[in-house]
Structures are given as C-alpha cells and as structure tokens.
Design brief:
There is one protein chain. The chain is 39% helix and 17% strand. Strand 2 and strand 3 form a beta hairpin. The strands form three sheets. Strands 6-5-4-7 form a four-stranded parallel beta sheet, with helices on both faces. Strands 1-2-3 form a three-stranded antiparallel beta sheet. It is elongated. By secondary structure, it is an alpha/beta fold. Helix 1 crosses helix 5, helix 3 crosses helix 4 and helix 6 packs parallel to helix 9.
Length: 296
C-alpha cells in the first residue's frame, strides 16, 4: 500500500473541514504550482488515509495547527502566538547558496515554504515534502505562494518514499542544476522523525541516480565534441550520407537497434522493392517501444 508507512492513527479528512476562515489562495497557488508539477492536483485528490490536523486562530490572527502522533501526544506545527513571524525568523537562519536546489521537509500550513521562497533567488528549484495531504491543502489555502511564479516549486503531498523516484525522475534535469540542500521545518521533522527520515533517504537516492545520469550525459557530450573537433576538416569535406544512399539501394533487410519515433523514409527507400524488410523499435504514446516489421 503506498501509504503503509503512515501512523495507524489516521483518517481521511475533507479539505473543507480544515480550511481556515480567511482569504483562500488555493486557486491561485494551484495555478502556479501546476506549471512546474502538473501531477499535484491528482496527488491532492487521492482518497487515502491521512492525518487529521486541528486548526485554530493564533493570537496574531493567522491559523496555527496541531496534529496527534501515534503515541497520542500532540504536536503544534506552528506558533500559537504568531506563526508568520516564527516562519520568517526560521527562514532567516537558512543558509542560502547562489545555485542550489532546496528540499523542504515539512510544509505544515505553508508558512515555512512561503518564507523560504521569498529568500531564494529567482529560478531556484524548491521541492517541498508534506506527509499530510490535508495539511498541504490547508497550506495552499492559507498562504500566498506568489514567489513560485519565478521559482520552480514541486509540492509532494502525502507521498510514500517509494513514490519519490518515479515522481521526480521526469523533472531531474530541471531540478538538479546545482547541489541539493535539505531544509527542515523543525516542528514537522521533530514530531514525525521516522517518516521524514524515510522521505529524505528516498530523495537522496533520486539525487544520486539523477546526478549520475547528468554526469554521464556531460561526459559523453564532451567526448562527442572532442571527436567532432578532432575530425573537423574531414567532416567539412565529407559528402555525408548522400553519396552512400545511391550505393545502398535494394538492401534485402535492415535491423535498427536504436529506437525512433517514426520510420525514417530513407531507410524504407533503401530496402529492396521485392520484399525488403525493416525491423525497428518505434515509440508509442505511452513512452514504450513496439518492435515493428516493415515489408516493402
């Protein structure tokens, strides 16, 4: 079960039951966050066991929240006096780098995420992990995430550790432009250390895999350019493939080992008109490959 890692004392909570009575930023925030992560609405809508946070106004006005841990003890996720000011002070202590990707462990009602976004440079990727979808929905309603318009933000609400890699893999090149720095929302991580530790390990595995892929691509790219420059004179004087096409007519069979999105017409015309065969893997809309046999 994708959420078997959650504590047993959980239940499904409709978003409407925890929405604070103040300006609702949900629609505007979702419109911004979907640009970087189109899967967010589907994750928020999943009907799976979830935490049941209690919201109440702080003395300063903005809501604060408390949740119950498996042992029955309660954890206040934000200040009961002024949660916005608390988040600003916390964000002031976060070490910032000119080029980095920040992974926020614990979003709560969104105060730490909003404060962090106001401090990182435009273009800085931020991955925000919140173990509760109910809290993530409340965060989208509570805080204004307008800075996300200039910063790619990936919000992962209520995901299990094994879901991290498939969700982040398509975003690797955009999110791994620099070193990855973990930032903890203290109350979330202290209250649910085991769960956030598992999520941290899952993100670390994704970073290691993605970094290896990027490094391999860069190494191959450098080698390609080195070969191209070393053979530049011959490359410029070469007639290319055109001179070979006339000599490669009437081929009885061609086997293509690298996949393609379509059947190259040049290969088809090289086949013998008397039953020449082409075997080639062609990508389908699902991103997989179908092995096709073409007979001329």
């Amino acid at each position: 079960h994708p959420e078997s890692w959650l504590p047993p004392l959980t239940r499904s909570v409709p978003a409407a039951t925890i929405a604070p009575t103040m300006t609702d930023h949900t629609a505007a925030n979702l419109a911004l966050l979907e640009r970087a992560f189109p899967s967010l609405p589907a994750l928020l809508a999943r009907d799976l066991p979830d935490l049941a946070p209690d919201l109440e106004p702080s003395r300063a006005g903005p809501p604060t929240a408390r949740v119950r841990r498996p042992d029955g003890t309660e954890v206040w996720l934000h200040s009961r006096s002024d949660p916005e000011r608390e988040a600003e002070r916390w964000a002031d202590g976060v070490p910032l780098e000119p080029i980095a990707t920040y992974v926020l462990l614990g979003v709560g009602l969104g105060y730490p995420l909003a404060a962090l976004l106001r401090r990182v440079a435009p273009g800085t990727p931020v991955i925000a992990l919140e173990r509760s979808r109910a809290l993530a929905r409340a965060a989208l309603s509570t805080v204004d995430l307008a800075p996300a318009a200039e910063r790619p933000v990936v919000l992962l609400p209520g995901v299990a550790p094994e879901e991290i890699y498939p969700l982040l893999r398509p975003l690797g090149e955009r999110l791994l432009a620099g070193p990855v720095r973990f930032v903890e929302h203290p109350a979330s991580v202290q209250g649910f250390a085991r769960e956030y530790d598992a999520l941290r390990h899952a993100v670390t595995r994704w970073v290691q895999s993605g970094s290896m892929t990027l490094q391999t691509g860069m190494a191959l790219g450098r080698r390609f350019m080195a070969n191209r420059l070393a053979n530049l004179e011959a490359y410029l004087e070469s007639p290319g493939l055109l001179a070979w096409r006339a000599r490669a007519r009437g081929v009885p069979a061609i086997v293509v080992s690298a996949g393609s999105k379509y059947i190259p017409p040049a290969l088809f015309h090289q086949l013998s008109p008397n039953g020449g065969r082409l075997v080639i893997p062609i990508a389908n809309p699902q991103g997989e490959y179908d092995l096709m046999l073409v007979i001329r």
